[in-house]
Amino acid sequence: MHPTLQQDLTRFPLILDHTRRLAETFLAGLNERPVCPPAAAQQLRPGDDRLSAEGVGAQAALDHFWQHYADGLSASAGPRYFGFVTGGATPASLAGDWLVSVFDQNSLLSHDTIAAAIELATIEQLKSLLGLPAAFSGSLVSGATMANFCGLAIGRQWLGAQRGVNVAQQGVAALGMVHVLAACPHSSSEKALGMLGIGRDALTPIATLPDSEAIDPDALERHLAAHPATPTIVLASAGTVNTTAFDNISRLLALRERYGFWLHVDAAFGGVAACSPACAPLLEGWQQADSITVDAHKWLNVPYDSAIQFTRHLALQMQVFQNVSAYMEAPALRPDHYLHLTPENSRRFRALPLWMALKAYGRDGIRDMVERNILLAKQLGDGLTASEGFYLLAPVNLNVVCFALTDITDDAEAERDNFLARLDRHGIIRCTATYYQGQPAIRAALVNWMTEESDIALALDSLRVCRFTAN
Questions:
Q1: Can you give the pTM of this predicted structure?
Q2: What Gene3D superfamilies has UniProt attached to this entry (predicted)?
């Protein structure tokens, strides 16, 4: 064995303890850490892009990283990161995620690990939490992009089956043109269309309801009626990124009965709202969708990367993703045969952090996270409405606040971007730029389990200070 490897093997307990101390230091300083570190801190030191011959050993590598790069880490795990829809990591999910690397299981039905059984149990618990029926199967994937990819891939296979074509076997050209209809789809679905060979040009925008990001069912029906023979996938949104608008899934199901399309529901973070009785009606009907995306590293506060794809069409899923090899178990139609149900052959034990979180906090704990974030988002919205220099572009429907700047003197986009740059330098709160109905806008997404009223007060103070400062 190489001497440095031998040294690290001997010192393994010390290395793990040192790692724990660094993690404790990071977490203890999370509230003081800037949500957006200075650009200079996000750069590599000269020479750190080159591989050395001998290496320095694990502890020295840890110390080098901490000394030179810890300041370049964002406080995205903390309570005032409202940028992307990024949850933190609850203690239980963080503990589970650490152990995933320690255990280093390939999470397949390989009959040499409990991993597949834990994943199946996690899916069953999640269905119970979200009110999804037994007809759905599911599996863990890396994020909403891959969950949408899976749903659209199974949908593509279904469209082929309706026309006597096995797309996974014959290729997408055998299916021909596909229409993908949506009002405000997430960009990850467009990415998935590119990867699947359906093509981004297949995405046809459908009009929204007035003053909303939700799809207009009447406009959708007009398109469906005009193209009755075209294979069609409808992408429904259960929580758009700007305003958390929910498509009327019950109306879409009625259209599906008449026009026979595949219905995929992108509920990356909005789906978790189903655990709250007050919010569950927003998702009425999703129990009958063909496929669903839910993201665990958003509102379930599990570390990256973790999402779930659900479908009612397990046999079609296996047709798409089966992996036939002499040294692997042959495909069999069962919901835990993940080798044949997901894009990956090698899969980390992603289910464990989510299983730990569900076990640790239960239905009531997850519901508390969701309902508290919703309440705090409304407080942030109310505070902005009462503050000079801001106005809401849409009501706060759930956990995202979409707003803009008042008293714009020149270029609205430039003023917004300059304001966000000041906000980043202030380091208290992170928001992101967007557009809403063609207007430069700002969005704040609240999904972190640690966010409290005191964080909203700090956020509002920072927003007000940065609104009219010059630098």
A1: 0.96
A2: Aspartate Aminotransferase, domain 1, Type I PLP-dependent aspartate aminotransferase-like (Major domain)
